[in-house]
Amino acid sequence: MSLLVTGSIGIDTVETPFGKRDDVIGGSAVYFSYAASFFTPVRLVGVVGDDCPKELLNVFNGRQVDTSGLEIRKGSKTFRWHGSYLKDLNEAVTVEVDLNVLAERAPKIPEPFLNSDFVFLANTHPVLQQQTLANLKSAKLVVADTMNLWIQTERAEVVKLLAKLDGLVLNDGEARLLTGQKNLIHAARDVLKMGTKFVVIKKGEHGSLLVSDRDVFVLPAFPAEKVVDPTGAGDSFAGGMMGYLATQMSLSPATLKRAMAFGTVVASYTIGDFSLGGLSSITREQIDNRWQEYKLAMSF
Ligand code: AMP
Asked: Which residues contact ligand 1 via a Cβ below 6 A?
């Protein structure tokens, strides 16, 4: 099955108790694509400004990521995000965000991408997410992510988007913000009422929760000993999950749960280093080995 992703591609500045990195490659679609490409080819649709240093975009060299949907828009500026984890390694505080090109129109989807089966609308402006989705008529599974900024500033558009999705992936704070519910099961059920068939709530070091009409399922996080920079953990989780799903013949609840376990394992590598450092130093074999280790750690 073909897998298309759209979302942010940005230049990040990140501070954690382990140091600071200025102007590194980031963005939801970047982490997602890299993570998913361990499992399946990825079609990336995104936009940067003509100020984006070329070498930042070289991260996909040698990966099975088709970047023909990556637009470099003349006269526009690249999305920038400055995040800090100095207070709490589990929660990013946005120090500064410059939407720049994300406040403009959605990038054009290349003709050969229009037949994509699986679609992931990674975190970006909900209007751009909807514009992209409107062109993907043959999608069999559509899943999206969003974040507090959009829930606070573009709530009506987020709610409109939800009605068009099969699944939503978001973190615990965002689920509470979106629904006003403290209890995460209640929050997830309220999201289902807004139109999705399933919702996955990410809880950082406390793992993840899947809720659908027929299931409530929980997974712990992989017990990682090295946490340097959590940026991109959520996008990598989604990339591992969707990448694995795209290789499977069925979309059964059991397949979805296995996919979440792959997402968990991939995210555990992302947090071990800054930017894409954690993912760029591993192989698919290491992911599979850690997946077995994770499975064993949970059996009793
Ligand atoms: P995650 O840690 O998985 O939630 O994602 C971190 C990535 O999200 C960073 O690389 C940022 O560039 C990107 N990001 C931060 N804020 C936004 C936003 N408002 N819209 C889209 N992407 C964002």
From this structure: 8, 10, 12, 26-28, 31, 81, 97, 123-124, 147, 149, 231-235
